[in-house]
């Protein structure tokens, strides 16, 4: 149960990092990555995974 | 640095205009009189802001720091992924900065660009979405450069949450992009918004955005913040509707309305670009602006600049001041800015007097309005060689006076070598509807080719003020009975 970020389509805008309720997203080098140990897919916190809901490029924040 | 920055001595090189009194229109800094039709206190707040006063944009420069990469809405005219150093349009930037890096850049630029008067945050995402970054940037800069004017632009969705913070930081200028006041129209412009921890689409998205924009605008205006509203003109989608937008924002206290043409090159990868939605041509843009005239004050000199733009409007030097070209620990030197301001104060007062005197006589003219193009590198003077012009400023002259009403882009003609003829064709196309160009100088061949296309180029007013030159030229066309 975790999300991942597709680096090839990510624009590195950081909106996902800003929205993540678990602090599971951070920048590593030039790309953003999800800590799968911390990601809960926003279960219990929000109706849908926040990273995918705010991401400007469809198909970039997707289930692992 | 770049030749795009005008040297101090470029302003003073022309003889001072020997003129008399000061009429109501455009009188400047002295005496507390209304300037540019504005109350004195408002004039003080806009006279050094190149985006809020077209008079100021001849003298002063702004810089944007790209500290706000993330956005909370998706617009069909925006694609922030596409990044090109040669591109100039909103949402585009070459480097993203942390607030600390941004402050370092501002200090370095302020020491090197004496025209700098405004620091803005304009994306490339939304300045108020992750507002902490924007406010931290301003706080850091305020410690070193308390006299800079602070400015930000936003889509307005998060604006109601931050009105008090904005006012408390003396951010006196805020731009809100409002493209619609009808959710039916909005649904064609915004595919979705992210608000209250969820994505909204369609009419719901547009309705929420509209309500938040209007609430934010009204509350900011009530706090005394000068709110500029930008509207993207999208033919067939919201062009007629912007008349309604103008009325709504006037009722809610907007200070300035800036209608910008949609940029929809398919190569940029925007939804509108890919769908073949066209932007307006200059005549359509001017037609709409003229319909709006008499409502909220209009900004007509916008260059739709980059999220990391630096310099005078239309003279971007952002590529010269990227982080890698700046010192690690810049020390602010206030001398160049102070010297420049002193020159501008003298210069603009002289120019206001000259312009008022020169245009006073126009009122007797019954001649129809003329549209002309001017080559200038700043200072409100005709001081650029035709071949060096990257853009033309467009002025309208009639019995009411001389007014800047827009600009036309035309990348340099004078690059040397092959291709000049093609470029001249592009310039002729860009000058559609304009039959006279004023330049400091022009070569024989382009002058001849332009004449063949029905465009006269006049270089006998080299280094004169735009207003005095155009008024004199317009007067000369009057029948003798009017000029006696």
Summarize this structure as a short list of keywords or feature phrases:
heterodimer; A: 64 residues; alpha+beta; Alpha-Beta Plaits; two-stranded antiparallel ribbon; B: 484 residues; alpha/beta; Nucleotidyltransferase, domain 5; 2 domains; 8-stranded mixed β-sheet; 5-stranded mixed β-sheet; 33% helix; disordered N terminus
Compile the SSE list and pairings.
The complex is a heterodimer of chains A (64) and B (484).
Chain A: E1 3-5, H1 15-19, E2 25-28, E3 31-34, H2 50-54, E4 61-63
Antiparallel strand pairs in A: 1-4, 2-3
Chain B: H1 8-12, H2 40-46, E1 61-64, E2 73-74, H3 99-112, E3 116-121, H4 131-144, E4 149-154, H5 163-168, E5 173-177, H6 183-186, E6 192-195, E7 198-201, H7 202-222, E8 226-233, H8 241-251, E9 256-261, H9 271-275, H10 282-292, E10 297-298, E11 310-311, H11 335-360, E12 370-374, E13 391-398, E14 401-409, H12 420-430, E15 436-438, H13 444-452, E16 456-458, H14 466-476, H15 480-483
Helix pairs in contact in B: 3-4, 11-14
């Amino acid at each position: 149960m975790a999300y991942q970020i597709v680096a090839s389509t990510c624009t590195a805008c950081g909106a996902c990092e800003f929205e993540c309720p678990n602090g599971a997203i951070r920048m590593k080098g030039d790309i953003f990555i999800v800590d799968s140990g911390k990601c809960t897919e926003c279960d219990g916190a929000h109706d849908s995974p926040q990273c995918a809901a705010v991401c400007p490029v469809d198909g970039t924040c997707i289930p692992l | 640095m770049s030749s795009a920055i005008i040297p101090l001595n470029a302003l003073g090189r022309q003889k001072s205009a020997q003129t008399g009194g000061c009429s109501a229109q455009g009188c400047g800094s002295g005496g507390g009189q209304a300037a540019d039709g504005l109350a004195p206190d408002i004039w003080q707040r806009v006279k050094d802001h190149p985006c809020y006063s077209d008079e100021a944009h001849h003298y002063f420069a702004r810089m944007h720091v790209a500290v706000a990469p993330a956005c909370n809405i998706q617009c069909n005219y925006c694609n922030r992924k596409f990044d090109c150093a040669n591109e100039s349009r909103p949402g585009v930037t070459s480097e993203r900065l942390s607030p600390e890096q941004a402050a370092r850049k501002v200090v370095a630029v302020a020491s090197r660009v004496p025209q700098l008067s405004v620091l803005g945050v304009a994306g490339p995402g939304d300045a108020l979405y992750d507002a902490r970054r924007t406010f931290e940037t301003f706080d850091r800069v305020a410690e070193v450069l308390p006299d800079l004017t602070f400015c930000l632009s936003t889509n307005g969705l998060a604006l109601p949450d931050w009105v008090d913070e904005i006012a408390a930081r003396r951010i006196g200028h805020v731009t809100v992009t409002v493209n619609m006041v009808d959710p039916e129209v909005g649904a064609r412009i915004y595919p979705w918004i992210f608000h209250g921890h969820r994505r909204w689409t369609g009419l719901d998205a547009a309705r929420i955005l509209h309500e938040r924009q209007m609430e934010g605008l009204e509350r900011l205006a009530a706090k005394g913040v000068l709110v500029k509203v930008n509207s993207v003109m999208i033919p067939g989608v919201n062009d007629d509707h912007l008349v309604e937008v103008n009325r709504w924002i006037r009722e809610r206290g907007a200070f300035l309305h800036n209608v910008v043409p949609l940029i929809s090159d398919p190569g940029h990868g925007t939804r509108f670009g890919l769908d073949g939605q066209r932007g307006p041509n200059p005549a359509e843009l001017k037609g709409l602006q003229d319909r709006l005239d008499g409502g909220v004050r209009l900004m007509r000199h916008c260059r739709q600049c980059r999220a990391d733009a630096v310099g005078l409007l239309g003279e971007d030097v952002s590529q010269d001041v990227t982080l890698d070209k700046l010192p690690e620990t810049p020390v602010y030197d206030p001398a160049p800015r102070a010297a420049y301001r002193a020159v501008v104060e003298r210069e603009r007062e002289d120019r206001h007097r000259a312009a008022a005197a020169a245009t006073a006589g126009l009122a007797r003219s019954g001649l129809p309005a003329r549209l002309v193009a001017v080559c200038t590198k700043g200072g409100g003077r005709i001081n650029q060689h035709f071949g060096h012009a990257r853009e033309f400023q467009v002025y309208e002259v009639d019995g009411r006076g001389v007014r800047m009403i827009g600009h036309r882009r035309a990348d340099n003609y004078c690059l040397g070598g092959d291709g000049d003829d093609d470029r001249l064709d592009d310039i002729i196309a860009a000058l559609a509807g304009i039959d006279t160009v004023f330049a400091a100088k022009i070569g024989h061949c382009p002058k001849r080719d332009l004449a063949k296309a029905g465009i006269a180029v006049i270089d006998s007013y080299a280094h004169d003020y735009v207003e005095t030159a155009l008024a004199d030229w317009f007067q000369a066309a009057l029948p003798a009975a009017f000029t006696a």
